[in-house]
Write a structure and sequence with these properties.
The chain has 15 helices and 2 strands. By secondary structure, it is mainly alpha-helical. It is globular and about 60 Å long.
């Protein structure tokens, strides 16, 4: 049994039911849209976000119908943002398969993303789940801000470690935070507990993103993407920021010049990667990743032992130990 299947085991019944519900929510009477949503379902990922919803709800003592709606709302939102991201990034592959914009072009892809987002909002409104809607809407707002902040900083390459954490807190961690908050809310947790779950999810999300940053420096195919793609896209990730912070003024200017003007030159990029490794940038990033992971685990430690607690601990460990 794979690590992820082991984590999913206590939720097997709930995940099967969720699959049925989610597929029904994606259906449309428009033939083209129905064809596209079937393709989306066929190419879906690891279901990590629904896992966080259900495990958070279970830890609070109750997986309810609202838990299914919370998981659906977040999964629809997440799928919509991935579609829009592929359009913005002009990316034609997603998890090794063709992206929607590669098959149906940008206009249709944007409209499909809008449709999925509206479907998620309608699920919440029809069932008066306004608390869930608020949690997820706040995540959408932060994700948009984080993406725009990253684009702005990619132009100037003036990002500090503080700004980096602000970007990933908004862009990546906010969605996992909303999973944990919405899951606990669906399990009838009180306001203070929901906020603690949100903070836990934020810490997990930050650790998750740092792990992705580390993948980018691996000289192999484990990360499902070519090495140093972040440098090629002029994204300032934590290992690179650490290098700049610990370089002389002249050396820093040389590195920034290379990223601005030679970011697609394999030899020049390889030199930057070597400098990051030599100065300890990867070790520093890994240390930070573990710090945020431990904050999340510390919060869970206060709950009574259960299969949900055990699986959530394993899921948090998986986010920082995964191979891709």
């Amino acid at each position: 049994m794979s690590k992820l299947n082991e984590i999913k085991a206590p939720l097997s019944k709930h995940l099967k039911e969720f699959d049925i519900i989610f597929k029904s929510q994606m259906k449309s009477k428009v033939p083209l849209l129905d064809t596209i949503t079937r393709y989306i379902i066929k190419t879906k990922g690891k279901q990590m976000r629904p896992l966080f919803v259900f495990l958070s709800a279970g830890l609070c003592g109750k997986i309810s119908e609202r838990s299914y709606r919370a998981a659906s709302l977040i999964e629809l939102l997440h799928t919509a943002t991935l579609i829009h991201d592929d359009v913005v990034d002009e990316s034609y592959k997603r998890r090794g398969l063709f992206s929607l914009n590669a098959l149906w072009r940008n206009k249709i892809s944007v409209l499909v993303g809008d449709y999925l987002l509206s479907r998620g909002l309608m699920i919440a409104v029809k069932n008066n789940d306004y608390d869930l809607l608020k949690i997820v809407s706040e995540a959408v707002e932060q994700m948009s801000e984080g993406e725009l902040l990253q684009i702005e900083k990619a132009r100037k390459l003036d990002i500090s470690e503080k700004v980096y954490f602000d970007i990933i807190r908004k862009k990546t961690a906010s969605l996992i935070a909303s999973c944990c908050a919405a899951g606990s809310a669906s399990g009838d947790a009180d306001g203070e507990t929901i906020e603690h779950f949100r903070e836990m999810g934020e810490n997990i999300g930050i650790a998750f993103q740092i792990k992705d940053d580390l993948f980018d420096y691996e000289q192999n195919a484990n990360a499902d993407k070519p090495g140093a793609i972040d440098i090629q896209e002029r994204k300032m990730t934590l290992p690179l920021i650490y290098l700049l912070q610990n370089s002389s003024y002249i050396e820093r200017r040389k590195i920034i010049f290379t990223i601005k003007n030679h970011n697609t030159n394999p030899e020049k990029v390889a030199q930057i990667i070597q400098k990051v490794q030599a100065i300890g940038g990867l070790d520093y990033a890994e240390t930070k990743m573990i710090e945020y992971r431990e904050k999340a685990l510390e919060f869970i430690a206060g709950f009574a032992d259960s299969e949900f607690k055990s699986s959530l601990i394993k899921l948090i460990m998986y986010t920082t130990e995964r191979k891709k």
